[in-house]
Amino acid sequence: MDFLKDKFVKRVLLYAFLVCFVLLHIYVKLWTKPFFESAGNLAGQIATPFEGATLDNNKAQLASVLKGHKLVILDFWESWCGPCRLEMPEFQNLYSAYTERGVEMIGVYNSSSDESVKQSIKEYSLTFPMIHDNDGTISKSFRVEAVPTTFVIGPDLKILRSHQGMDGGLRTFIEAQLNSRVHKTR
Amino acid sequence: MKTVLAVVGAIVVLGIVVVAGGGYYVYKKGTSAVVQVSEKEIDKFILTKHPPEPVANSLHRIVNGVKLHPSMYSSVLVATALNSIQDGIVTEDKTKMLAEAAQLAEQNEIPKEQITAFAKKYQAFMSRRNYPQQSQN
């Protein structure tokens, strides 16, 4: 590491660092947004209100669901998707544990058949509502690229969390959100 | 003189950074292009050829797996799937291969041994039919 003591080498590294810093700054400011903003990375943004029909042909509107709840968990999944099915028992547990504390959960599927979804509901004894996003409008508005993708939406339609892939930290997040809301109302 | 050399040195270091960054960008863009093309082709295949549900499900799972965990190995899986459906014919072997590919694609990280075993087993479905390279000795 003796070469680092050389003034010349120090000067080279300093110039290179400065130029890299300036270029990186320009890159981050100008181009990173469209490059990295994908895969449902919408935390902090306002959710687009949607309307859909549940499996039992009831109307479900995000806005009206939010009126009566503190948080809404939106789970984009498909019956053919292994990771989605793997996390279903945990989602059902979450739904059962937090419904009374004002948390609603909605499952949204697009390319699965109603029959296969009904089969999964039976298999995992799911009790939360499912919406068939026939034309993919809901998935597009939430920029869902792959399933499972999970969103947590606050009463003001603000997306508090978005996660692509299996969401191991959802329970902790919901608990923290509910606790902070309790503190705020006191 | 030393300042000039320092500037040249800085440009060289910068060049290396730009090439590395560019490589990463091309890799990212390339992966997303592979995914887009695969999704389009697979959707077309499912809509026009109406394959049995297990095959359609496996194809969905492979594309979804690549989107969730993009890597060189998952690209191999989706490329093999695409190659196998080019002729539009569904066989028992293909159904089995697609199911195995789907299972691999859904893993967070595909182990090298598993992808090598997959490639050896199903090299007939891969575009490079001589993969893995056979020794000529």
Order of helices and strands of chain B: HHHHH
Overall body shape of chain B = elongated
Query: CATH homologous superfamily of the largest domain in chain A, by name?
Result: Glutaredoxin
Low-pLDDT runs of 5+ residues of chain A are: 33-37
Number of strands of chain B: 0
End-to-end Cα distance of chain A:
59 Å
Quickly give the structural class of chain A. alpha/beta
Helix-strand category of chain B: mainly alpha
Biggest sheet overview of chain B: none
Number of separate domains of chain A = 2
Helix content estimate of chain B: over 70%
User: What fraction of the residues of chain B are assigned to beta strands by DSSP?
Assistant: under 5%
Helix-strand pattern of chain A: HHEEHEHEHEHEEH
Report the count of strand segments of chain A: 7
Taken as a percent bin, the fraction of beta residues of chain A is 15-25%
Topology:
The complex is a heterodimer of chains A (186) and B (137).
Chain A: H1 7-30, H2 32-36, E1 51-53, E2 59-61, H3 62-67, E3 71-76, H4 82-98, E4 103-109, H5 114-124, E5 130-132, H6 137-141, E6 149-153, E7 159-164, H7 170-185
Parallel strand pairs in A: 3-4, 4-5
Antiparallel strand pairs in A: 1-2, 3-6, 6-7
Chain B: H1 2-49, H2 53-68, H3 72-85, H4 92-105, H5 112-121
Helix pairs in contact in B: 1-2, 1-3, 2-3, 2-4, 3-4
Keywords:
heterodimer; A: 186 residues; Glutaredoxin; 5-stranded mixed sheet; 7 helices; 45% helix; B: 137 residues; mainly alpha; 0% strand; elongated; disordered C terminus
Brief synopsis:
Chain A has helices at 7-30, 32-36, 62-67, 82-98, 114-124, 137-141, 170-185, and strands spanning 51-53, 59-61, 71-76, 103-109, 130-132, 149-153, 159-164. Chain A is of the alpha/beta class and 186 residues long. In chain B, 74% of the residues lie in helices and 0% in strands.
Describe the structure.
The complex is a heterodimer of chains A (186) and B (137). Chain A is of the alpha/beta class. Chain A has two domains: 2-36; 51-185, 3-Layer(aba) Sandwich (Glutaredoxin), CATH 3.40.30. Helices cover 45% and strands 18% of the residues of chain A. Chain A contains seven helices and seven strands; from the N terminus they run H-H-E-E-H-E-H-E-H-E-H-E-E-H. Chain A has helices spanning 7-30, 32-36, 62-67, 82-98, 114-124, 137-141, 170-185; strands spanning 51-53, 59-61, 71-76, 103-109, 130-132, 149-153, 159-164. In chain A, the strands form two sheets. Chain A has a five-stranded mixed beta sheet with strand order 5-4-3-6-7, with helices on one face. Chain A has a two-stranded antiparallel sheet with strand order 1-2. Chain B is mainly α. In chain B, helix 2 packs antiparallel against helix 3 and helix 2 runs parallel beside helix 4. The N and C termini of chain B lie far apart (57 Å). The longest helix of chain B has 48 residues, at 2-49. Chain B is elongated and about 70 Å long. Chain B has one domain. In chain B, 30% of the residues are buried. The model of chain B is unreliable at 133-137 (pLDDT under 50). Chain B has helices at 2-49, 53-68, 72-85, 92-105, 112-121. The A-B interface holds A 7-8, 11-13, 15-16, 19-20, 23, 35, 39, 78, 80-83, 111, 145-147, 164-165 and B 2-3, 5-7, 9-10, 13-14, 17, 25, 28, 56-57, 60-61, 64, 67-69, 102-103, 106.
